[in-house]
Design goal:
With 429 residues, the chain is an alpha+beta fold. Helices cover 33% and strands 19% of the residues.
């Protein structure tokens, strides 16, 4: 396709107005109005509204702080510098939503600005670098309204803005459908686990009597013991002395920030180690179906399931992550992961750290967790039942990975005008 002339540009402040978010603390959490916070800025064009926290709006939220369809919200301030300037597009609002003080809301005032087009503009590498440059180079620690208002953005005709947004949003619609499927399969898998392992309504349960155990009455033949009895590996990884530096390729190294559940991974915040360093690692190299636990920091006990080549066929973990491998006899990797998702398990893990000055768990505390294991035949039967659900989650996550990569390759070319959107649409019709 022939290259096109560069779009005309305008200052963002001539097209939109801005507002900082509301200031609240954890005492405000509960029922009320949903709030977009920094934790909601992942690989999405728009937030997952069902997962938003809720706060009591009394004395905090006014009409001016309530988001509207077409608004774009930016991360204003965060300890993780890479999140500064990341944005979310607000769409499909079915209830009131506000945004936190660590964010800035943009609302277009120009009728010639198509909000969804600019949601993609703000995701391009050149604009992300521009936000950093306005903030004083790579050491930016805060975004502000003045930086945004002075940002120079492309300004094609509204018809071209809508056409480009249409092409790119088709990818995001597919990604969102896959994300919904992931959520549904997750709920089904967890519900099955609770039915069998919490309520003891496994096939044939009516014919099995209950016996006393340290964990209360359990079905006869089940074993109340410790997690360590069922593990064949419990190890952590590492990163080079002095950190990973500015490596932009190599072998992906998964840190605690990406331990957030099966099929969930923020590729935008990927870290790497060199091939040489990776090949010299004796522990912390991910094997297929490893379960990973966030071991120290604000979210200890959070876990992920690394399987079927997702997020990578070859990767490792750093020193903030534990990898767990079960014997597969009474405890399989599928069951181990689902057990770790249970709120009671997460609380038990965090409870081992209750009196520590710094949040963190060690191998001893993990091995010592109380675990109820079924007979091997029930464990194997449950594995067969739940396997299609977990495999389906990873399959959908892998599709999303491919869709995001394709969208992100098209994104800068369409936004800059290098690709003619009308020709692209006709060629893909």
């Amino acid at each position: 396709m022939a290259a096109r002339a560069k779009w005309p540009t305008k200052l963002l402040g001539d097209l939109a107005e801005f507002r900082n978010g509301v200031n609240y603390d954890k005492r405000s959490f509960g029922q009320g109005i949903k709030v977009v916070g920094v934790k909601d800025f992942q690989n999405y064009t728009k937030p997952l509204y069902a997962e938003l926290e809720q706060i009591n709006p009394e004395g905090i939220v006014t009409e001016r702080n309530v988001l509207q369809k077409g608004d774009i919200v930016f991360v204003r301030s965060n300890g993780n510098r890479e999140l500064i300037g990341r944005s979310l597009y607000i769409d499909d609002l079915q209830e009131q939503v506000t945004h936190s003080a660590f964010t800035i809301r943009l609302r277009f005032t120009s009728p010639e600005a198509v909000s969804r087009f600019y949601a993609y503009v703000f995701r391009t590498p050149i604009i992300r670098k521009g936000l950093t440059a306005y903030g004083g180079g790579t050491n930016i620690s805060n975004l502000n309204q003045d930086i945004l208002s002075r940002l120079e953005v492309p300004f094609p005709k509204p018809t071209e803005q809508r056409a480009i947004a249409g092409v790119l949003s088709a990818y995001d619609d597919l990604i969102e459908n896959n994300t919904r499927r992931i959520q549904l399969l997750e709920r089904m898998a967890q519900a099955l686990y609770r039915e069998w392992f919490v309520h003891f309504r496994f096939p044939g349960h009516a014919q099995v009597k209950r016996v006393a155990s340290p964990l209360g009455p359990i079905p006869q033949g089940w074993e109340a013991g410790k997690l360590g009895h069922h593990l064949i590996a419990l190890e952590t990884g590492k990163r080079p002395k002095g950190g990973v530096g500015d490596l932009t390729n190599g072998v992906p190294s998964i840190g605690a920030e990406n331990i957030k559940g099966i099929g969930r991974h923020d590729f935008a915040s990927e870290k790497y180690v060199s091939r040489k360093f990776f090949e010299e690692m004796h522990k912390g190299v991910v094997q297929d179906r490893d379960v990973a636990i966030y071991k120290d920091g604000a979210y200890i006990g959070r876990s992920s399931y690394l399987r079927d080549g997702f997020p990578h066929h070859e990767c490792c973990v750093n020193e903030h992550v534990f990898l767990l491998r079960s014997s597969g006899h009474r405890l399989t990797q599928n069951t181990l992961y689902l057990w770790l998702q249970e709120p009671d398990t997460v609380q038990a893990i965090r409870g081992t750290n209750a009196n520590a000055a710094q949040p963190g768990i060690n191998q001893q505390s993990i091995n010592g967790l109380g675990l109820l294991a079924p007979p091997a035949e029930i464990a194997a039967e449950f594995d067969l039942v739940v396997e299609p659900l977990l495999a389906g989650i990873v399959n959908s996550a892998t599709r999303n990975k491919v869709l995001r990569r394709t969208r992100d390759l098209l994104l800068p070319k369409l936004i800059s005008g290098v690709l003619d959107v009308s020709k692209l649409a006709s060629e893909t019709a």
